[in-house]
Structure prediction request, 205 residues.
Amino acid sequence: MSLHHREQQERLHEKLRRELGPDVLAALHDADVTEVMLNPDGSLWVDLGGAGMRDTGARMGGVQAENLLGTVASMLGTVVNAGSPVVEGELPLDGNRFEGILPPVSTAPVFVIRKRPRLVYTLADYVTAEIMGPWQAEVLREAVRSRQNIVLAGGTASGKTTLANALLHEMVVLGGPTERFVILEDTRELQCAARNAVLLRTGDV
Prediction:
């Protein structure tokens, strides 16, 4: 990377931090927060996982939000405007999942930032937390051992990625140190501890 390009990226990152603002940045650094949301009325909400959602009391103006979406789109190599009002991808600052929407799809600029999980929960953790029973965990382990296909389906924030990471952990443990993993996803959310792994992203080539 050339010095000019590195300086340009640093300026864009600083611009992005300014447009996110101190309240969003604080929420992104809060270990208890799993999602940060801007609503059309300018209110900033956070999802605290098991504790539910909370209005932070902070506000973001429409101009600031629209500038933020434009900066994110630019850093992702795309544009966002009335003709193409949705931008989604990895937030260039930290790799968290970002989706922003402009009018006319929404009544005002909105966005959701979904944070990457800090920890990988194992099937044993699910059992300890009484989210699933021991027999259910063993059914899943047997499916991994026998290399069966496993389909995870559910709504937004229903825990699909968390369970997928738990299953991926079992695959690494049961597969041994030389097992090869090829992971394909649209936004990087899965966490694989395997030494022999290739992480790929879908998208237009």
Observations:
- The chain has a mean pLDDT of 91.
- Strands lie at 35-38, 43-47, 53-59, 86-90, 97-101, 110-114, 181-185, 197-201.
